[in-house]
Specification:
Layout (H helix, E strand, L loop, with lengths): L1 E6 L8 E6 L7 E11 L1 H7 L16 E8 L11 E4 L2 E3 L5 H4 L11 E2 L19 E5 L4 E2 L6 H4 L5 H11 L7 E5 L3 H12 L3 E6 L5 H7 L3 E4 L3 H6 L4 E6 L14 E9 L12 H4 L4 E4 L5 H14 L5 E4 L4 H9 L6 E5 L10
Parallel strand pairs: 10-11, 10-13, 11-12, 13-14, 14-15, 16-17
Antiparallel strand pairs: 1-2, 3-4, 3-8, 3-17, 4-5, 5-9, 6-7
Helix pairs in contact: 4-5
Bound molecules: NADP nicotinamide-adenine-dinucleotide phosphate and zinc ion (ZN).
């Protein structure tokens, strides 16, 4: 199937229209018309090859919402016209202990990423949701609750599940004190979800600029991470801190904020951090952990939870041709709080 998307052709070139082929439908595949696609900071990291494993052309996009346009002969879960969503994975071995537990993100053979990966059968590159169509096996398509505003659902598929999963894994709920470092796409979902789960939430931001927003999103307070007095007063006052900062940074100031046995979970930076001074860990049996997205059953649970609580991201809708500008603003932390591309805006390029 021929389709149109937006691709980076190298680490230094801006995204531009790109024609390519999607695979023919396999018996367990669904074909999806992409309606909306969220813009994750990972899309920018991958387009620029920040992590060193990108290859080109690269069509980003792993926060996808769309409508089923065709189903393979053996598809049971979906029919033409259904609303579905796709996140960061499109396949896994389905056979290992992790896949059997619904933790496909930790598949022993490695999951297949929605873009920038390789198809498990043909080894062809996978291309993401910055495109008109997407084809995935039905197990990796999520059901979108009808009550949710479709234009705002897409960011749940990465920003939502990436923060929901550690909140659940570390038992955030009534009585727990959760800190969120960095109020961006992931951070603002962490605030809404932690609040929805019943926790008391604090945003840790570099400046006071987002204080009003933080309170509106559901936080009880905003703590300025560069304010050493305020940070000292917050000593031992968190059960869980979720750190969404997208670059190398210093976690040492956050460690004393953890109570005894509490955990700081890294979900942002992939790569080195500033050196950790172990005193912050020893003096409180504190832990530093990491977490990546979430499994398919947990992603469905998160979507249903958001529907039951009316939780949706705060979105700024953009056209596909505004993606360069959106990447620039995301890099300057000038997004409140997630860009979503209206895929109807992706038109055939005009002949020169
Ligand atoms: P984002 O919307 O750009 O938000 C990041 C936030 O971090 C910013 O709003 C800012 O918050 C803070 N920040 C930015 N630059 C900073 C710096 N130099 N030092 C300290 N703080 C800084 O990004 P996102 O989409 O939420 O993604 C965040 C990170 O998570 C990215 O690295 C992305 O690749 C990663 N990610 C991981 C997973 C996973 O599965 N683990 C999934 C998706 C994304 P303040 O202005 O409030 O300080
Ligand atoms: Zn993402």
């Amino acid at each position: 199937m021929k389709t149109l998307g937006y691709a980076a052709q190298s680490a230094s070139s801006p995204l531009a229209p790109f024609h390519f082929e999607r695979r023919s439908l396999r018996p367990n595949d669904v074909s999806i018309e992409v309606l909306y696609c969220g813009v994750c900071h990972s899309d920018l990291h991958m387009a620029r090859n920040d992590w060193g494993w990108s290859f080109y052309p690269l069509v980003p996009g792993h926060e996808v919402v769309g409508r089923v346009t065709e189903v393979g002969a053996e598809v049971k879960k979906y029919k033409v016209g259904d609303l579905v969503a796709v996140g960061c994975m499109v396949d896994s071995c389905q056979n290992c202990d992790q896949c059997k537990k619904g933790l496909e993100q930790y598949c022993r053979e490695g999951n297949t990423q929605t873009y920038g990966g390789r198809d498990r059968i043909t080894c062809e590159p996978t291309y993401g949701g910055y495109s008109k169509q997407l084809i995935v096996r039905e197990e990796f398509a999520l059901r979108v609750p009808e009550s949710l505003d479709l234009a705002r659902v897409a960011p749940l598929l990465c920003a939502g599940i990436t923060t929901y999963s550690p909140l659940k894994a570390w038992n955030a709920g009534p009585g727990s004190r959760v800190g969120v470092v960095g109020l961006g796409g992931l951070g603002h979902m962490a605030v809404k979800l932690a609040k929805g789960l019943g926790a008391d939430v604090t945003v840790l931001s570099r400046t006071k600029a987002k204080e009003v927003d933080a309170l509106k999103l559901g936080a009880s307070r905003l703590l300025v991470s560069s304010d050493t007095d305020a940070m000292a007063k917050a000593k031992s006052s968190f059960d869980l801190i979720i750190d969404t900062v997208p670059v190398k940074h210093d976690v040492n100031p956050y460690l004393p904020l953890l109570d005894v046995d509490a955990t700081l979970v890294l979900v942002g930076q992939v790569g080195p951090l500033n050196e950790i001074h172990t005193a912050g860990l020893l003096l409180g049996r504190r832990r530093v952990a990491g977490s990546i997205i979430g499994g398919i059953p947990e992603t469905q649970e998160m979507l249903d939870f958001c529907a039951s609580k009316g939780i949706l991201p705060d979105c700024e809708m953009i056209r596909m041709d505004q993606i360069g500008e959106a990447f620039g603003r995301m890099e300057r932390a000038d997004v409140r709080y997630r860009f979503v591309i209206d895929m109807a805006s992706l038109a055939e390029p005009k002949a020169a």
